[in-house]
Amino acid sequence: MTPPGSLPPRQNGARFSAGPVLVGIGKCVTGYHHLKESFEDSKMALEYINIIRKIIGDKNKAVVDCSKLGIFYAFIKMKDKEGLWTYIPDSVSRLYQYDVKNKGELINTLECFLDNNQSLKKTSQQMFIHYRTVSYRLQRIMEISGMDFENASEMLVVRNGLIILRLVEER
Q1: How many CB atoms lie within 10 A of CB 147?
Q2: What is the DSSP letter of 61?
Q3: Range of lowest pLDDT (7-11, 69-73, 93-97, 161-165)
Q4: CA–CA separation, 105 and 17 (whole Å)
Q5: Exposed (0-12), middle (13-18) or buried (19+): which is 93, by Cβ within 10 Å?
Q6: Contact 164, 71 (CB under 8 A)
Q7: Helices (H), 19-170
Q8: Closest C-alpha among 137, 93, 89, 96 to residue 113
């Protein structure tokens, strides 16, 4: 018997990896005829684990459920990468193009800022940059994109656009 907290003994010279274990959960189905569909969903949950983690707000989640995707499930099922771009708001698209052209960090800054409930202090701590650097970048984001951080509806659209952008980048 293996003592708690230790690795099991080698079997036939094989070593066991202590790497991270990830679990994908598919949709709940009725009857074994639909198990393949649920299995495909569980594979999709693992393939898009970073997107699901972002949606649920837990970057270290090891067990992910495809049902947490919500409306993004439909976007994942879309095979047309160009078609996905139509669901990304122009403000996010302009910012992305600016970052690509200038090797910038504005998209990452915006995403971190929104992840931290628009807190400059938390954003600067998480990104390991000065508070004023975050403030300057947010000013640039507003200039380039025309975003209004005070408009909750617009920020919801931007947030969703960022998630779709990450889907496009993963393809």
Answers
A1: 21
A2: -
A3: 7-11
A4: 35
A5: middle
A6: no
A7: 35-47, 49-56, 72-77, 81-85, 90-102, 106-115, 120-127, 131-145, 152-170
A8: 137
Asked whether 142 and 91 are in contact (CB, 8 A), the reply is no
95, 145 Cβ separation under 8 angstroms: yes
Residue 103, C-beta contacts closer than 8 angstroms, at least 6 positions apart: none
How many Cβ atoms from other residues are within 10 Å of residue 82's Cβ? 8
Q: How many CB atoms lie within 10 A of CB 55?
A: 18
Sign of the dihedral through C-alpha 116, 120, 121, 125? positive
- Which of the pair, 59 or 85, is modelled with greater confidence? 85
Short-list 158, 64, 63, 143, CA closest to 104 = 143
Nearest to 135 by CA among 119, 152, 111: 119
pTM beyond cutoff 0.85: no
Amino acid present at 33: H
User: What is the pLDDT, as a whole number, of residue 3?
Assistant: 57
